[in-house]
Amino acid sequence: MNDFLFFDTETTGNTEKDVLCQIAYKHGVVEFSELYKPAIPIPPEASAVHHITNKMVEKRPAFRDSIEYLRTKTLFEKGGAIPVAHNAKFDVDMLKKEGIEVPRFICTLRLSRYLDKENKIPRYNLQYLRYFLGIEIDAQAHDALGDVKVLEVLFERLKAKMIEETGSEEKALEEMLAVSARPSLMHTFTFGKHNEKTIADVAKIDRGYLEWLLAQKMQNENDEEDWIYTLKHYLGRE
What we know:
The structure is a single chain. The protein is α/β, with parallel strands linked by helices. The protein has helices spanning about 45-50, 55, 70-80, 90-95, 110-115, 125-130, 145-165, 170-180, 200-205, 205-220, 225-235, and strands at about 5-10, 20-25, 30-35, 80-85, 105. The chain starts with a strand and ends with a helix. The model has no long low-confidence stretch (mean pLDDT about 95).
């Protein structure tokens, strides 16, 4: 029986300098969620997303100074459970900044893209998938523990679909880990002047836009792995 650790972080932002201010996880029946004081202030833009303010964390310890830190580090590094997150690379990188190495993980964002063979899902962010797929669950959006609860249900659906595709749970797990470890190929723009157009079509009519966008994404290479892979694919640079 495979063991999974569902987790999520809330952060001060999504740039190289940003750090976590909340972590939540669910491991079996055990649920954990806690706020921490980050090394930099939480900007209003981040608070507008997760509703965590500087006042809420001003008396909290830094994550590394907390009594939960070593337990959390051991759980992720040596606990044996496979960590699962949505857009996992982002959360894994946040943990790495805190000195926690995650050797393998499953990413439900990449799995959702991979299993959407007919490109029927317009967007793949967690809360969109929650309502698009009709996931009925009592969970507060953009709260780390609320997102973990949605994540667990989404994962079970994706796992069932992968088992159908591969023929067994063992093969499904191998494929989920493999898909999660490599960049995923995106198909449709959800922003900008080509919003809702396929990237393949834009490559035919506005190659210069893809060139420009690739240059922009290359400036933040660690966080834009999927987009860089996708743009290089459609530009024939793989």
